[in-house]
UniProtKB/TrEMBL annotation:
PANTHER family: BLL4672 PROTEIN, BLL4672 PROTEIN-RELATED. PROSITE patterns: HTH_CROC1 (PS50943). This is Transcriptional regulator. Pfam families: HTH_31, MLTR_LBD. Gene3D superfamilies: 3.30.450.180, lambda repressor-like DNA-binding domains. Transmembrane segments: none annotated. SMART domains: HTH_XRE. It comes from Actinoplanes couchii.
Amino acid sequence: MTNTNQLGQFLRARRAQVEPAAAGLFPGGDRRVPGLRREEVAVLAGVSADYYARLEQGRERHPSPQILDALARTFRFDTDTRAHLYRLAGLTTGLVPAPAGDIVHPALLTLMDAFPHAAAYVLGPAFDVLAANRPGAALLAPFGPRPNMVRVLFTDPLARTFFDDWPFAADAVVHALRLNAGLLPNHPAIRTVRDDLAGCPDFTTRWDRQGVGALLRTGKTFHHPAEGRLDLTYQTFDVRDAPGQQLQVGTFDHGTRTCR
């Protein structure tokens, strides 16, 4: 899954996902491929068709910020996706991984234990669960003591019933993994997860769509083998002194039991 033309692959994949009508174009005519044509993207972004073709082909690798902004507007990128586009073009720097690697600071462990009625856990850049408080560990117990949530979603049969909306969860984790891959280029754990799942069609189909997005505040419903249905509202926080780590805190909705 290694690619030396990441910017071009990203643009091609996202171009194919833009409906002509959504871009203000008449969708008729003989369209042999989905989405916009290269020439249409060039017109909408205000660049020459030859220049845009060279971007996709990897013959031009240093677009200006103005061109990237024009492409982001054409594709209607959100903030996370626009920032990812800039990183692929080499115009922003990624994060510097935490020197401690997968070690969670004791102060963060103490903080998680101060949430006795919330499921809290720390995720690494590749979405390994690095630490959890008691409710968080109980929630994720069906998947082992330190699961990798990407592998869980795509390789553990229980995931399809555990996550009430499995397709949403699968999309979200792949988008977030790609975001982390841009922030932490060549991170070994991210690369290993990608390579390990290269033979999984459900994963590769989503990965090839080039979707990008951070884990946001959202409601999730789980069907826990021991606890039954659990409804939680999640917040995700970046761990500022350990770049690449994220704290997830899920509060149990009113009327839902807390995991013991």
